Amino acid sequence: MSESAAALVPATQSARSRTRVIVVANQKGGVGKTTTAINLGTALAAVGEKVMIVDLDPQGNASTGLGIDRAQRDVSSYNVLMGDNPLSDAVTETLIPGLFIVPSTVDLSGAELELIDFDRRAHRLFDALDVFWTEPAPAHSRDPNDSASRPLDYVLIDCPPSLGLLTINAMTAAQSIIVPLQCEFFALEGLTQLVHTVKRVQANLNPVLDIQGVVLTMFDQRNKLSDQVAADVRNSPLGEKVYRTVIPRNVRVSEAPSHGKPALLYDYKCAGSQAYIKLASEIIQKERAIRQA
Fold this sequence. Notes:
By secondary structure, this protein is of the alpha/beta class. It has one domain (3-292): Rossmann fold, CATH 3.40.50. Helices cover 42% and strands 15% of the residues. It contains 14 helices and eight strands. The chain has an eight-stranded mixed beta sheet, with helices on both faces. Helix 10 links the parallel strand 6 (176-182) and strand 7. 45% of the residues are buried.
């Protein structure tokens, strides 16, 4: 772990209460979870927030999309969940100032089976984050005038496309969920399944968990189905939680991960990047309201 990454470790438990932990989840694949996580993290960092992304997807797309080569992933989220290393060992710098990542490797694909015999198997990430927040800060990070020693503002957790134990770990560790929802025919069916899982987690593992919002992704204004799905979601029981910002289907956003960059760095002016900037603004407004409540 580099010196600046080590400086993420705050000195007091009060840091946990000021850091918002948000899961980006949907059991359906290809809906824009990872794209949302990395571009939202980038947008938040761009306005001065300190952000850490935890990559819990064995595919490791969030890590790749932020330019973290597999050779740089000596300590990953797998090692953290297994208890081999503390979370602080896995924190890796990205190209974006103020944005860090706990990368993923393919080893994570076997974690759900390995965790079955562990105590508190649904709380492994929660416990790792708790230790991360309470362990003493390195001496070089204790200067109150040094912005690097400031506690994290946000932790964003990118989940695999399933409602298995990895996603349950993420939900148990978080305060809220952002649900990317592709504008396609079966969107509402998948959303219903996710809501049922959230209710079970609330009842048994994490009573503070809440769905913060639903973001419509891959919206194609030329396709009448996109308009119909958007209208159906806004008229559903979760309609009041749907963000005003809609993420359009955009070639530049799709190209960005192959260059190891968020879309906001790859092409700041493209429609997709501008949409994620607007989404970040909406989320910050919601978060401020939550903190003031």
